[in-house]
Every structure is written in C-alpha cells, then in structure tokens.
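Notebook entry, structure prediction.
Reason for the run: the old model in the group folder had no record of what sequence produced it. Starting over properly, with the input documented here first.
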Amino acid sequence: MAFCQLTSLLLTRHLRGQASLLQGVVAFTDIARCIVYACLTHIRDEGFMDDPVDNKPPTLWQMLHSVVAAAFGVQSGKNRARDFTHGKPSHFVILGILFTAVFALSLFGIVKLVLMLAGI
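New structure, fully documented this time:
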C-alpha cells in the first residue's frame, strides 16, 4: 500500500505542473526506483530467484536481475555472493554496460519528449 501511495504522490506532484523539468526527471527516476524495488522484493519474497546450493553459473535472468538490482542499490547479499562465487565478471560487465546505455537513452528520450511537449 505504501508503494502505491508514494507512486501516486510523485505522479500527482509532477502532473500538476508544480515541478520543473529537472524535478520531473528526478521524480521519474524515483518512481522507476520504487517500481523496480517493489518488483524485486516481490520476486525475492515469492522465491523465484532462489538458487539451489550447487555450483551452476547464474542464468541470464539471474544475471540481469543482479545488474538491475545493483544499479538501483537493492542487491541482496545472497545474490551478490552467488554472483561473485559462480558468475563470470565479463558477463556482468557486458550486461551492466547494456543496461546503462538503455537507461541513459531512455532518460534522454523522456527529456526530449517533455521538451517537445513543452514547446522548448
């Protein structure tokens, strides 16, 4: 319930036009962070990301989950330990670079869209 209230508050504040463009981008990143945190918490609580106690390398989904969680600062200690013991650094570096590029391009596109809609 708190997640929905926070998202609603951020969207309402932004949509009322009381926020500058920079505050709008900050509000968007806050909303994105809240959504990612809620999704990752749900995935963790439901046990979708449980890793058996074997020496299998992490799957692509687990690596992507780790990269996104680490980018938003919500990586769990258990997953971090799994990544450092069973994962290959090159895979995480490549996924991290791809995620950063997609995230930066998304923000750039949103700012361009807002500027275009504002007539600037």
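Summary: Helices lie at 2-15, 21-46, 60-72, 77-86, 89-118.
The old model has been moved to the deprecated folder.
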